[in-house]
Structure formats: structure tokens, C-alpha cells
Description:
7 strands, alpha/beta, Rossmann fold, globular, 181 residues
Amino acid sequence: MKEKISNIEFRMMQGFMALLDHMHHYVGTKAETFGLRNGMTVVDYGCGSGRYTVEFARLVGSEGKVYAVDILDIALKETEKRLRKFGMQNVILKQANGYDTGIMDGAADIVFAIDMFHHVSDTDAFLREIYRISKPDALLIFSGGHQSPAVVKTRIASTGLWLLTDDNRGFLEYRKANTNI
């Protein structure tokens, strides 16, 4: 598995996603199904160009906070452009160092990992970081993207950190397992 993609690959992905967004407002419609409320703290891990980040920021409102995390400089720059375009000021950009987000322990109500898990080579390190930054009752929302749900479920279950609670909406929803790490 590949951790980083090239800038050219990122631009190609960004163009494809822009075309999809132009044809259908899928991101906004889907974001509204996650139960985000005013004042929540959300992490968009692997934010890419910020498609979901903007919607999450809108849904958590000015009282809430969104951390947009990515390993790529280009992704954070594109997310920042999108945030300026939509006037979003409740988002903090964070460049991941390996899997380390730099976010404080227990900060997140919900962590989203949408269409990025296929890039993760160290499942354990990635899921431990998400566990660390999540509140005790936090949700983890996954989209495998380029991996089947069965593969994603197996990879996540292997760590023992997260328990699957829902897989009926096109996304996998997890809660923290009661474990001491």
C-alpha cells in the first residue's frame, strides 16, 4: 500500500471529484446523514481537497470545530482555498507526520476517514492515533473507497480498538472498544 500520492495523482483525483460534485451534490447530502450537530468537534482525516471538510464545518457551526488532516501539502493548500471560498473559519488545518495528527487526546466527537484507508500501510498505528484523539463515546466513520467493506472490516477488527456498530449506509460506523492501549 502506498502512503502518499503524487501531486499529479492528487490533481487527477481532484478533477474527477469536481466533476462528480458538479453532477450531483452527493457530499452535502451524505454529510447531513452523519448526525453532526452545532458545537461538535470533527476530524476529517485524509481531507484531500476539503470536499467533506466544508460540509462538516457548516454542520457543526461556529460553535464547532473541524480538524482537516492530510499528509499532503497540496491537499491542505487546496482545502484552505476551498475554506476561503466558502468563508469557513471553524477549521484547523493539520499536516500529519506519519500518522500523528498533532491533535490533543480525546478531542474528537467524530472522526471521518473517507476514501483514504487504502493508502494506510500501518493499520495499527493509524487506528491507534484515531483512538487517541477520540472522546470515549466518539464515532469513527469509514469509507473504504478502493477496498471492499470486508477488507476494511478485517483490517479494523485486527486491532481490537474499534467495534463495528453500523454498515447499512454505505459507510462503516465504529465506536471505541473498551480497551486500555
